[in-house]
Amino acid sequence: MKLWQKNYRLNSKIEAFTVGKDYILDLELVPYDCQASKAHARMLEKIGILNEKEIEDLIRGLDQILDLHKKGAFKIRREDEDCHTAIENYLILNVGQAGKKIHTGRSRNDQVLTAMRLYAKVQLTGCIQDVNTTVNIIDTFIEKYGATTLPGFTHTRKAMPSSVAMWAGAFKASLADDLDLLKSAVRLIDQNPLGTGAGYGIPLHLDRQMTTRELGFARIQDNPVYAQNSRGKFEGFILNVLSQIMYDINKVATDLILFTMPGMEYFFLPDEFLTGSSIMPQKKNPDVLELLRGKYHEIFAYEIQVRNTAVNLISGYHRDLQLTKEAVIRGFATVKEAIEIAGLVFQNLMVNVDKCQTAMTAELYATEKTYELVRQGVPFREAYREISKLYRKEEKQSDE
Question: Which of 69, 178, 232, 242 has the least C-beta neighbours within 10 A?
Answer without folding.
Answer: 69
